[in-house]
Design a protein that fits this description.
single chain, about 90 residues, mainly alpha, about 0% strand
């Protein structure tokens, strides 16, 4: 596929040409590599955002689970205390 870019600054084109020359590739190849990297990075940014939202949700669920477990431990301690008191009386 072909893409045309108009009105680039001459200094910018020269700099791109220098970078391509240093890498031993054509301007076209360098620009193709850069555009591929931009496309990949956009996908990675979206993926990272998705995982950040998912991670936040998991953290919230873990906090809620921790509260439930703490309450269950307190309940179990109360029950054990009552059992011990009953055994001492009986």
């Amino acid at each position: 596929m072909e893409i045309k870019i108009r009105n680039l600054n001459a200094a910018t084109v020269c700099h791109i040409d220098e970078l391509a020359h240093k890498k031993g590739i054509s301007r076209n190849q360098l620009l193709c590599e850069w555009l591929d990297q931009i496309a990949i990075m956009e996908g990675l940014v979206q993926l990272e955002s998705k995982y950040e939202r998912m991670y936040s949700g998991v953290i919230e669920m873990m906090k809620e689970t921790n509260l439930v477990l703490e309450q269950a431990v307190k309940t179990n301690q109360t029950i054990l205390q009552k059992i011990n008191e009953t055994e001492k009386k009986g």
